[in-house]
Amino acid sequence: MRILVVNPNTTRSMTEKAAEAARAVAGPGTEIIAATSQMGPASIEGHYDGALALPGLLAEIKKADATGAQAAVIACFDDTGLDAARSLAGFPVLGLCESALVTAGFLAQRFTVVTTLERSRVLLENLSRHYGFGGRAKVRAADIPVLELEDPASGALGKLRRQIEMALVEDGAEAIVLGCAGMADLAYSLQEEYGVPVIDGVSAAVKQAEALIAQRLTTSKRGSYATPLAKVYAGAMGAFAPAAV
User: Looking at the record's lineage, which domain of life comes first (predicted)?
Assistant: First the structure.
């Protein structure tokens, strides 16, 4: 199996962290192909960053589709560009938020997503409702800029722990979902520390991608995710015209 793990921001160290988490859970016959977007923001924190990350993300999806990838994981918990990528790709594409929520739903009735900034909290609440988990999932923001997760001296881990502890007491959380790809390396240690399931979206998405490949399932091209219609795209978007797909 060949699975693309694509980071839709341009920070390579975050790509490496996601790829490491993916390889840690991938089966012995699975090759993880890591890719970093070549254009767009250094981190994705809210709707504006997410919108401008799409061209770089879709370019990597298109490239992987042409070189034999069998599935892709978008390594951003906002599920940046997920619907557009599913329309473009000829293979299954998974988002971290959807994958992590589905996994948490197998393990607990009530769970809390702990994410980075307040602006991301509202976005993830909307995604939780969209995916059907609005009544089971709460979302907390730890006031951590994404790139601070790369700095051990930033105090980010302490902020994350405080929100987890509050979720367990105040939310009655039975499991914790880590709401950022930059937290992927923390799941196992936090699970041991707090004694509840701690779900990392990268790991969850990779295992679900393997299951889809094994079942020979891919995204339906009838209706919502139909291949984009050929047409002219103007200006800098010309390279993304569906006629060239």
Answer: Bacteria
Neighbours of 40 (CB within 10 A): 21
Using DSSP, state whether 59 is helix, strand or coil. Answer: helix
pTM: 0.92
101-200 architecture in CATH? 3-Layer(aba) Sandwich (3.40)
Phi-psi region of 43 (alpha: psi -120 to 50; beta: other; left: phi over 0): beta
| 58, 226, 237 from 244: Cα distances, Å | 13, 16, 11
CATH number among 3.40.50.620, 3.40.50.10260, 3.40.50.12500, 3.40.190.10, domain 2-96+203-240: 3.40.50.12500
What is the DSSP-derived secondary structure letter of residue 42?
S
Q: Are 106 and 207 in contact (CB under 8 A)?
A: no
Query: What does the alpha-carbon distance between residue 79 and residue 238 come to, in Å, rounded to a whole number?
Result: 25
Total length of the chain = 245
pLDDT tens digits, one per residue of 175-191? 999 999 888 889 999 99
Tens digits of residue pLDDT in 75-120: 999 999 999 999 999 999 999 999 999 999 999 999 999 998 888 8
